[in-house]
Amino acid sequence: MPELPEVEALKDFLTDHAVGHEVVRVLPVAISVLKTYDPPVTAVEGHEITGVRRYGKFLDLQTDGLHLVTHLARAGWLQWRDRLPDGPPRPGKGPLALRVALETGAGFDLTEAGTQKRLAVYVVRDPQEVPGVARLGPDPLADDFDERHLARLLTGERRQIKGALRDQSLIAGVGNAYSDEILHAAKMSPFKLASSLSPEEIRRLYEALRTTLMEAVERSRGLAAGRLKAEKKSGLKVHGRTGEPCPVCGDTIREVSFSDSALQYCPTCQTGGKPLADRRMSRLLK
């Protein structure tokens, strides 16, 4: 799933490649991707792209009076093409969901792999009209997001810290992968209650949150859109690395599985050497 660093990099890429150019065609291939109908998606045709912004994991292409807002969801991606194919795309079972063509002949495709179609495109007059944008919490890379701000957000949070970090209405932009990375850097169990963190733990978590995300943004900065996925995977220390040695202490990275996701962690770095209970795996082994 693209998270804050990848969407930030896509924002920078589109700022360099699309701003100042006119949208000549918007071609939805999978109608399910469109979440608004007034204005229609074709309303941005003939408009110049004046800016690109990121709201959490949402990407906003700004034109004069209209915004084309995209959420890539779990399996969506943006593929830039210096030269789009001639002729309209054919609807079918492929991953292509929507194509945006510029007057230069360049443009981009929004694609989505898998069977769960969650990629979303909105055309609105104000990004706050998008329900997911309106619900977003503060951006953890904002200049005014400090340690005290994080402490206030976690006060009274009777949830495990892993779930709290992934809650977009609490903190915008962090998903499954980077929450694993942040907690590993903070040497903190993903099952620890958010409201139980001491001032020292808040400090460690804040430093890990900012450092992990900023380093990921810097690694992605300047990369072509097509290289961002590989860069994300190569930079992860624990997420998606079950069974591999921890790069910090050498212990084996372990996993806890859920119905639709999994988390990875290092027992030595994060849980005092104790493996976390994996109830789903335990049931499978009975």
A few lines on this structure:
The chain is an alpha+beta fold and 286 residues long. 29% of the residues lie in helices and 20% in strands. The radius of gyration is 20 Å and the shape is elongated.
The structural class is: alpha+beta
Indicate the low-confidence ranges by residue numbers.
Answer: 281-286
Percent of residues in β-strands: 15-25%
Following the backbone from N to C, one meets helices and strands in this order, namely HEEEEEEEEHHHHHHEEHH
Which overall shape is indicated by the principal axes computed on the Cα atoms? elongated
Percent of residues in helices comes to 25-40%
- Structure annotation, total helices: 9
Q: Major β-sheet, in short?
A: 4 strands, antiparallel
Give me the Rg, rounded. Answer: 20 Å
Quaternary structure classification: single chain
Q: Got a strand count? A: 10
Distance between the termini: 32 Å
User: What value does the average pLDDT take?
Assistant: 93
Strand order of the largest sheet: 1-6-7-5
Topology:
Blueprint: H1 4-17, E1 23-28, E2 49-55, E3 58-63, E4 67-71, E5 76-81, E6 96-102, E7 107-112, E8 120-124, H2 131-134, H3 147-154, H4 161-166, H5 176-185, H6 199-220, H7 228-235, E9 254-257, E10 262-265, H8 267-270, H9 279-285
Antiparallel strand pairs: 1-6, 2-3, 3-4, 4-8, 5-7, 6-7, 9-10
Helix pairs in contact: 1-6, 5-6
Task: Write up this protein.
By secondary structure, this protein is an alpha+beta fold. 29% of the residues lie in helices and 20% in strands. The strands form three sheets. The protein has a four-stranded antiparallel beta sheet with strand order 1-6-7-5, with no helix packed on it. A four-stranded antiparallel beta sheet has the order 2-3-4-8, covered by helices on one side. It has a two-stranded antiparallel sheet with strand order 9-10. Helix 1 runs parallel beside helix 6 and helix 5 packs across helix 6. The chain is elongated. The C terminus is likely disordered.
